[in-house]
Queue: 4 jobs
Job 1
Amino acid sequence: MVRFCRRLFFLLIVRPVLLIILGMNVRGRENLPTDGPAIIVANHNSHLDTLTLMALFPLRDLPKLRPVAAMDYFLKNKVLAWFALNIIGILPLERGAIKKNPLADMEAALDRGEILILFPEGSRGEPEQRASFKRGVAYLAKARPQTPVHPVFMHGLGKALPKGSFFLVPFNCDVAAGEPLTWTEPVSSFMETLEARINDLAEQSHVQPWE
Amino acid sequence: MDKIFGQPKEVIWAIGVIYALLIGASILTAVLKRRNPGEGTIELSRRVTSWWFMITIFTIAIIIDRIVSTVFLGFMTFLAFKEYLSLIPTRRVDRLILLFAYLAIPLQFYFAHLGRYGLFLTFIPVWMFLFFPMAMTLAGKTEGFLRAVGTLSWGMMITVFALSHTAMLLAAGDSAGPAGGAGLLLFLVALTQFNDVAQFTWGKLFGKHKIMPKVSPKKTWEGFLGGLVSTAIGAAIAGPFLTPLSVPYAAVAGAMIAIAGFLGDVTISAFKRDLGVKDSGGLIPGHGGILDRVDSLTYAAPVFYHAMHFFVFSGRI
């Protein structure tokens, strides 16, 4: 039942909104994973980022897609938690000082063949402004070195629905997917390569200032 | 007047002729593709395929009824305006104002639907023109004010105001001629698009002398003049069926559409070149975005409508 609601939500709400009100220019769609396990890494501007990335996959892949999201934000009230866990299908991540291995849930998801969606900027932050990536993604890649990491650059959704705003303004958004990379030692150079890939994708996109 | 599917028979006949041309174009591109396969002919056949979709959507929209046609034209305008706003630099502080700008689209098309000439003509050039800078002033950020208000006002005019003239043609009523407002709309849109294709074809075949090397390096005098003559002839043939114009006046209307269409095309090219983009979007394979497809119409629609209004609807001709 929940699975059906989930499909319906994406078919009847997410896709029409993305198609009609927003509009997407997608480049490099062929670079997206066709099967799990895989890690998608994108910059973060808006709540719509997650939904947009998920809408790029066929509906039958929905159960496999797991956006990794902050537990303290999304599980703070019951309604939002139900929605986030069941309809969006988030993998909750605990932020701050914790004792157990923070990557354990993600590693387990990858072992189940799921596709993780990660936003290593850690927060939506200032819309359409890039923040440096947190290094967790590198440790995850290190723990599962065979898993492909797919860099994705997104632009425009931060204008349509930035952090702290409650109304949607139509804007076309750009999504550019690059060729996947896999883990290479050490953490610092892996992070540099990953950020450089996303910078390349950003440069190929047409990005206007948004102050 | 005889009707087929609730439309004047002239409209249905004209649509039949358009499909005949389309079939001809498909055969021609298939032959070209076989003779010299390559990126060029693949792009050409992609374009023709997109024409099939666009013409079919447009046909369905104008055949069903006037309200559907007007909503369809408004939606196309929304897509064009959205592409425009997505291409230009904007300010975060103006988000709510941009939302109001979008909401002006249904209002403008509603005024067109009612055929309220005065409201239609003043809503954007007067009221929105005054509203945008006022709202931005009240928002209180002066940094980038002139750029923001200038780009928003111009974008609103070149997309929403200009393209809404297509819907105003539908409201022409009894003065619209044998095929009604739908006939006028079909005349304008078919000839504008025909002119684009004719200019492209003449230019490809005989193009030598560049007409605007800095703005549109591929456009030539041969293409422009070939398109102008072809469109004038096409208009002279279609005019008596679709419009109240006699053959010579229809040819003049065709020439006006060709010249205005060319100017709209290069104006949008200048705008895109300034921003450093080739296409306004990726919605239509082989064509680019909606704005790339309606660029000629942004000039041809107001010029044709106001010429008709001044000379024909008023009874001067």
Job 2
Amino acid sequence: MLESFIPALALAFSPEVILYVAIGVFMGITLGAIPGLSGDMAIAILLPVVFFLEPAAALGLLTGIYKGGMFGGSISAISFGVPGTPGSAATAIDGYQAKLKGYPNKALMTALYSSVIGDSTSDLVLIFLALPLAIVALTFGPVEFFALYAFSLLLISALTKGKVAKGVAMAALGVLLAMIGRDPMGGTLRLTFGIPELAGGLALIPVLVGIFAVSELIIQLSKAWMERASRIMEDTRQKAESLLGDYDASKDKLTMREFTATLKATGIGTTMGTLIGALPGAGSSLAAFISYGLAQRFSRKGDEFGKGSLEGVAAAEAGNSATSGSTLIPLFAFGIPGSATAALFGAAFILMGMTPGPRLIYDHTEVIYALFLILIYANFINLGLSQFLLPFYSKIAMIKSRILLPIVCVLAILGTFAAGNSVIDVWVLLFAGLLGVVLRMYNFPLAPLILGFIVAPGAERALRQALLIGRGEWTHLLSSPIAIGLYTVAAIMILTFTFVLRDKK
Amino acid sequence: MPKPQFDKLLTRQDFYTGLVTIGVGVIGLLDIAYGNWRPGPGLGPHAFPQLAYITLLCAGAVIIIEALFGKSDAKPDSLRAVLSTGIALVAIGMGMFWAIGKLGFMVSVSITLIGASFLLTRNPLHHWPTTIVVPVVATGVIWLLFVQLINVPLPRGMLF
Amino acid sequence: MFHTITSRKGAAATAVAAMMAIAPTLGAASPLGSDPIRLVIPFGPGGGSDITARVLSATAPEFCGPRIDVVSMSGAAGLEAVNFVRNAEPNGHTLLVTDYGPIVTSGFVDDVDWSHEDWQPIMNFTEWLPTVYTRPDHEIQTIDDWVEYATENPDTLTFGHASPLGLVHLPLILFESETGLQNIHVPTSGGGETRSLIMGGHMDLGMTLPASIAAEVASGELTALGVFSEERSPVLPDTPTFRESGYDVVLPAWLMIFGTSDVPSDVVEHLQDCFIEALASPTAVAMSDRVNAGIEPLNAEDSNTLYMATVESIGNILRDIGEIE
């Protein structure tokens, strides 16, 4: 193996490959920052390019885009409260509050560092622990997946801050939105209200960008439109004004102490992100929300979550980014693409004449070693380039809202259209925005809705598959030690939380 | 232990929020009981929606009970203003999309952006660099990104 | 081995330039304008149809004239792509690349405003042969094992098959109605999930297309039981067909390029000729081999025969199981 390491080193660090990685990271950050557009989409567009590039250069380009896109989404999440990618929705919760409180730079830096830490760890896990983790991932069948999804729905209580009833209602609404369209198990239509365009269901990007981003944009637009400000808005308005007026850049620098204070949250995010990323089908937004919920529970300052906590930013962003390496584990170990990103990397391998799977590393040792090296050093390019670019992007965020808001709206609409080439997605985006506004006005928390929406399809599939395989016996759901373990942890968590809550009262 | 305040219940915002939540759950459950739901493998397609409706019903009840004990969010302020902005955005967004197919990308997007800046700016002609120049430049950048680089299959218009 | 094609890299095919894909020079005597041709696929990017279509989009421009874009529209379960092509101007610039699911099956079961006759095939890329597989340590290792076990223990074997009534489900239905066997059908979210459930021991059998398991079958990590086709699959030469084992169940899935039926015949002919010519070029052959696409193009007429035959056989199956009248 070692004899292929030296050529791999030369390959990975050739100036050409480094340049492609840098181009990729730059494109990823920029596209990721536009709501609706994500690294995945850029990779899909660039797939044909791999026909014409050396494998190492092509993989460098794609890796760069992917990593840049992961972080880029959090730039707009923090700057405008408008998540640029699905994975950064959880980052928006605290990141945007931090910006309103006058420390956007601290939040952005926290996001960047936790993103790079999570990503690097996940890459190391991919390189050194791919096989054992993949074997663990394979033990996850329908029974175990259902337990995992049930467990993650429990975290709703953590995402609601004392509004549990409203949070649970929102999760149920998220589940219902996810049920729209063709029943994936039986093929019949449900909840489409006779609209044939809804047969394919609601896509994640329009719902997520609509609920979180468009609703935020609408509220900010109405604020810009009317000088008469309401109670909530006056609040944010004053903050925004004070930010523009007395924003003191010299005070808005992340100190070493603040950074170390977020490390626990980053650790939780990294662990959860890496584990959830390795499971086929779970995804980065789920990892981000679960990390956020857990970090809040384990934080000493859990009360500050949702009010601009840097720990919240760190947990969400680390959880989101830590899926990036481990999502490739099932692909490398068994040739199973576990996520949209992994499927695109799989397609890129196929286009280069390399079959994804366990043989990959033996048949193409040099290229794969080079890819491993690229995965690691791309993080540092991401770190450097982002630190260089952030001041410019922050300046964009400071442009007067009356000019910037319409542009962001147009970008969100076109970006969402581009993600699925679908006019229906634009409709869904705008109506989800309206729904989001109504829910915000009546103080319903939005995060549980998204969690319900993300979890429901997988949970339903897993439950129904488990019952089919178990011939309708509900006891089959308890047939696996992993599932029993997850349910036990969940039960313990509920008990602790209720007692902790009772103590506080 | 606070006492239930029946007399104030009708003044609490969350009493109505809870009622709407329960209403959605009830309508959904009625739909499942009497609507046209076909059976499917493993529990059928109605099982998960049914669970969600029951959850809504219970959550709505809890919201009302909490309101009874004085825990309620305040009425939303300037709801009408925000909602009308929202509806305007939906209309403008769809209008822009429709216009791209008729007039072309550059014309539709720049008109939308200029129009929006005029709506949001006092004395827009006085601020022409930000209300006219910036939107036109932004349209150019957006066109480069979406039409030239990403090659989005937008409908083509008569102009450009 | 992957340097055969990358020699063109020298031509400064930087990322951005390749993205811009500046329109190449027009081919001679083309009835097409200079606008790009869009190959619309009703699936997400990265799958087999996407990769196969990209082989064509990378090689055909110099034969056909305009540049060729692959556009993925997976909305409304693929029907959005179908409607997009249906509503586009019938000038041969907007074409649908699809297997039979979104066009034949949907034409029967979905509420659509077109019929099967509203489409004309321009070319067929390839035929995919649905293959039944399992893990190597499972007690069922051959078609006969399966039939024997399922006869003795009806309704106990779990069979993963992606979406219901899809390419890798209808053959199972057909096989069961021919043999009277009963298995538990477990829908999954796709080939990847089916495979991980089988490898993890959660399910007994599954169905997929050969290219996705060829490497694992060769290295002994998966066992392919049989193929629902007339002849063996070139990438699975040791796997028998069901017909060889005495079960006359054949339901291959094709990947065709369609235009609407009102595309003028000279345009269809031009496209058919230049596509086939492009796919015969050394670059395309090398690419096709590299991605295991097994491209063996059929012209418009032969594709139409195949299309009509599929419409009939899928119609029969769906009527059999009471899905349509």
Job 3
Amino acid sequence: MKAYLGIDVGSVSINFVVINEAGEVITGLYLRTKGRPIQMIQEGLKKTAELILPDYEIIGVGTTGSGRYLAGIMVGADVVKNEITAHAVAASTMVPDVQTVFEIGGQDSKIIILRGGIVTDFAMNTVCAAGTGSFLDQQAARLNIPINQFGGLALQSSVPVRIAGRCTVFAESDMIHKQQMGHQIPDIINGLCEALVRNYLNNVGKGKEILPPIVFQGGVAANVGIKAAFEKALGEPVLVPRHFDIMGAIGAAQLAQEEVQNKRTSFKGFKIIGLPYHTGSFECDGCSNVCEVVEIYEEDRVIGRWGSRCSKWDIV
Amino acid sequence: MPKLTFPRMGESWRTFKMLLEDLGNEVVVPPRPSKRTLDLGVRYSPEFACFPLKILMGTYLETVEMGADTIVTSGGVGPCRAGEYAMLHHKILKDLGHDIKMIVFEPPRLQPLNFIKNVRALNKNRTSIRGIIAHIKRAWRKLQALDNAEKLSHVVRPREITRGTTSKMYRRVLGWIDQAYTTEQIIEAETTALKALREIPQDPDREILKVGIVGEIYVLLEPASNLEMEETLGNLGVEVERSMFLTGWTRDNTWTETTEMMSVKEAAAPYLPELVGGHGRDSIGNTILCAKRGFDGMIQIAPFTCIPEIVARTILPRVSRDYDIPVLTFFLDEQTGKAGMSTRLEAFTDLMRRKKRLQKRHFTLTG
């Protein structure tokens, strides 16, 4: 049977999704990036191959996320798309009349406004990563609570505790202050969830018309405390789709399906799992920009370069 | 003889170099801001200062190494701290042991004496007043030629058939304009330059989006400070119209010459009737004027912590809603990673393209 592969290479996680012609998710993988995108892309492909071969044949591949170019070059993607478009596409197929998408990932948080299935506005955090997954990860580790129980604890809170949400440095020192005063952990975590939601709505969501249905996706959507804080702040139900943590990859697969309507895929096949990849970098001394150029090698061949401001090092 | 240098903003240095040399000065051309400029600037500037202060600090330190001992720069009025930067730079340079002279131009209308005194200090050749005026006129003409070539490159780049041709040709024509000295030569170089840019093979059927860029002047004018945003947009098939050019100021400040019969100030008035310093009000006014001209979207760029642009940023969502024009804001700092910006620009382009197609479809259905 024919199928499409979507890969979302994010800062914290790498996701692999295979969808069939009807757009249904056949497999979905959520792996931690662990700072090693190349290795994890190969590992993810290997696991995906084990799950779908020999029943399915991949006839289109899309990549998204901050590592989309790297992944695109490695696997031979038909479409390489930014994560805003990918997330919007996925949300609007899962919840067809969706008007607002909250997406909070490892480093980015975004809001996407759709009207009639079309993206009409979006915003992304610019200079500050307060309230994204990495910070929650950090705090969970500091409090020695597994991240998957972190949000649940917030729901047990009975007393409101106010935490500053403007900046993670302020938030952390506020949390420590409250903890040393003797506040209960669930109350502090709940305060943190509310602070992050406040910051998100005020910063990323500023000036946006937030209309239902609201879909909440990205890794942080697993956190029921944040979901509850959103619902409390907005007075509207917030939907977390079943595949909330792999929506970017679903979108990439859907975009790939659109892209290969009339052409053959450039997917290199699962054989690349076994190929050696490595990267190297150098500083170009062609001008005063002194660009840091990164190269990726497949076996001994350079297959991609990026980081330069001019076209001098464009491939190949 | 003293060696002069000045802030670098895009390609305008070619003009300032000519003018200062005409007046009999030796000039040290400020190098294009690089990683090293940033390292130096960040090391010796107050942490909370904005990006332009840091880049300029680095640039000055680099030019001092190259032998410069006098800096010519501008002051400023109104509630933007950039007006104090010349003094702050001077103090930091002194603390570092560099005995630098600073010549600071304030707006001549407000401080005519300062203007005359500064011109006299720069007039090493003892040129007559008439001579000085002729030099300035010729320099202005060169600045116009440089701006015109840049404007045309923004129109051609999104339509080019082979990616990169426009940027390559643009760098070449800059050299031609740079070489020109007399007014006749400047006009000839400009004509040849514009012709060469126009003759780049283009795809007339490509669907082109038009985007206006507003924001703080330094990050608008120096591509090295905005990660070459205009070039990136051009490569995405977007024609860029920047609201600010050094030669554009006079046009924007007289209402009769804008096609909307309205000045930037008047356009901004319903939203922001006050001068908030810097170019905050211009960012709002220009967004409205561009919306009226049917642009597909607007981009605001500003240094991180820039108060005037923060004021504009909080008002722009309302303008965006009232005029149905998407607006995207970037705050720039010393980040050199381009990925975040590319992602947002790409998504913004997708958004505008879908919106445009929908409108077109709607138009054919109803009309």
Job 4
Amino acid sequence: MGFLAPWFLAGLAAAALPLWLHLLRRHRQEPRPFSSLMFFEPRTQSSVLHRRLRYLLLLALRLVLLCLLALAFANPYFLVSFHSSSSGPVLVLVLDRSFSMRSADHLDQARALARRALSAWPSGGPAEVLALDAAVSVLAGPTTDRSPLNAAIASIQPTDLNTSFGALARALRGIESTQHRPLDVRLFSDFQRTAMPPSFADLTLPPGVRLTASPIAASGPNWTVESVNAPLQIFDAGKKRVTATVAGFNTPASSLPVSLVLDGRVLESKTVAVPANGRATVEFQSLDTPYGFHRGEVRLTASDLLPADNAFPFAVERSEPRPALLLYSGNRSRPALFYRTALEASGASGFSLEARSLDQAAGLDLSPFAFVVLSDPGRISPSLDRSLRSFLRLGRGVLVALGPFALNAGPTPLAGYTVRGEDQPPRGDASQSAVISDSAHPSLRGLALSEVKFYSSIAVDPGPARVLARLADQTPLLLEQSLGSGKILTFASTLDNVANDFPLHPSFVPFVQQTARYLGAAGEGPRDLTAGAVFDLHREGDSGAAIDVSGPDGKRVLSLAEAASAKSVTLDAAGFYEIHAPAGRNSLIAVHPDRRESDLTPVPAETLALWTAAGASSPAPSAPAGGENGHRPRPVGLYLLFLALLAALAESVVSVRYLWKKEGA
Amino acid sequence: MPASSTHPLQRFLDPAILMGLASLDLVARTVVDGFIAGLHRSPDFGFSQEFAEYRAYSPGDDLRHIDWNVFARSGRLYLKRFRGETNTQITILLDASASMGYASGAVSKLDYARFLASSLAYIAHRQRDAAGLIVFDEEVRDYVAPSTRQGQLARILHAVSRSSAGRSTAFHAPFLHFQKALSRRGIAVVISDFYDQPETIIRSVEPLRFRGNDLVLFHVLDPRELDPALKSSVLLRDMETGAAIEVAPEYAGREYRQRISAHIDDLRARARAAGAEYFLLPTDRPLDAALREYIAVRQGRQ
């Protein structure tokens, strides 16, 4: 027996505390009146003895509790004997099933090699089967039964995910730490260079793990449609442009036919000249879609190692622009001019702006609008406030731009920020710039406000709101607050060029458009994602309604229970996913494999040797043969902690019982 | 077994219940009237005019004692005999020392003693006997001279009600005062917890007996004084002297009980030896039960 942390034994000194409390501390109590003491004698010795005896159980429990705690933290261990049959090496067969293994018969080769390795492993030795792509899945074992192991090898199918050797190293470290046995790892993979983690340190294997690489031969050219740039949403008629990048890996210069396909129909075909090991861009001008969601694809015709990556899916939706409402005070319609110009600048924002004065907003039905902008509204009428709050509870958004009318108008509309007054640039400067606090926010992504001059703004007390941008003097400039599932963005300056020159800067247009998309929940349209991405189902506004997700094979991805409760879904297969959410919030998502998988260039031999050698530097696990006895420390700290918990409970019960007795007496 | 189960008419006479009654007059009436209803015998009882028996007339007997009603019905002459031919005097000595203020429950010893004194005064009032009261601790604190005047009962009850637990007990001074105030023979009733040496107590009270008085000692004790039943060691403070002693439960359960029992036995024996009657009254005992025992004993003596 020994202690892993013997210094904690000093905690045993704490046992002196209950000893002092019980035996040495003078017991004080209030005297109780009694009619006469003529029949009593002062025999306090007996009383103290009685008290000591009475609390003996409590004292014992407290001593036990403290001793157990000290011992538990000292973490004692016992040496237990073991036989080598339970500590011999485990054969770990790792089969790469990533997208690149769809190439030719690579997966079949991997299966054959794995079976061969398994059959060569001594019959009494345990083995397990792991599948590797972006993560590691344990398919069987560890077991000495060959049947489930062979079945697991046969069941492995290629996925559309990428390979991650970093994930494999993490998984092996975890397995070794839980099994406490040497691992003889055989990795069957095409060993793509792109599967290596950024840092070699991430590949570190623990002692006792020996890695043997079994590369699958992969040589030859591979072309791929690396990316497609197509509009996600189309709001007007006319043919749109689609560009695609074709890349070649280990390829000679060649001319390849590329086609634009929409809903299975070839719209246009071109031939693109791709340089050796290079990239080429092809442009189509014939994307013309009817209303609705459509499945597009840029398809490459080539004979190469990995035909599965010769097509790149994309989703597109044709719809009418959604109306947005801008309400301004009195006749100050100038902000509407700037905002409309910025919103419609690209022609692809998907919104049409309707501007009205606040006086005309009375009784207006807000439900058709995607979002609402209040330009320097001052104090809004109670009926408009109720309408806007109902509008927000539907999951919509409101942008409030504060201006001079906000002064002396009480709290700001909807969000209710306290207005502290007008904020002037410090030190007599004419203007001040702004800094983005949350650059990852969807409405501020990629923006820079450092060149924008703010001459004046409205200083508000943000309270618990999220401050997205601040002026140079730390005054909040852009704040966000939620109301139900709705979003309220408050811009503490005007949307025209009176209080700032923001509308004159290039960043105003993306600010307006990103804000519009964020507030108008425009993210519900089609999306292009990489396989393995997690898609947020935006459940905040739902009340347990089911969201149906159909996979590329047309089957439901989520069970009925999951459809009613899942917050997100992992899109791990290439193809098109259909999302059917309540209130017609449907989406079509194009999922393509990670194009790093198209680069079949293997890991340099010296790098691979370095990795496997690192594992081999530890004591090499040998195949199980015969038996060997030994001793292994078994810590018992957790058991002691459990006993301490029981002692604490018993102490509580006993002390409460004594307390009741004392009160009763 | 509680007295209420054996005497249904006395079920309301628990001392704790009597505490809720408004006045001592009401307490006394409740106790005594209920007590009378439970006797089922003659309404003649008490201290002097106690009916004894009928005896056949024989020549030479005083004709004034012939019961003519019986003669009218039966045609025979019978004499109606009483015990005590004259009204007597009862003086109640109520100990109001600090120790009498002790109460483990709702009723203190002093409360119980007040109920008892009130009931005895009421009985005397019904019998048209002269009743008086001395409230004492280490000295005489209140004195109502025995009398049969109208309003005497109210005076006694008023004196009883205003008595409160005072200082320590001393029997010598109040009894000396009583001896001086005593003008005729009668009954002296002492209600106390008798926290003193039995020898001292009897030496103080027995001169009353020498002067022809009947002496009755009511020893009022709280049940917790008879059986402290401590669950843990406690610090006890003497209500009269203020001294404090830490007492262990094993002492209270064994030696204390022996001592208090010895004290009671000694006091009872010395009282009887001095010709006095002794009654031990725990404060949880129904008052009418105590009175019943007292009457029974007194009838037996006569």
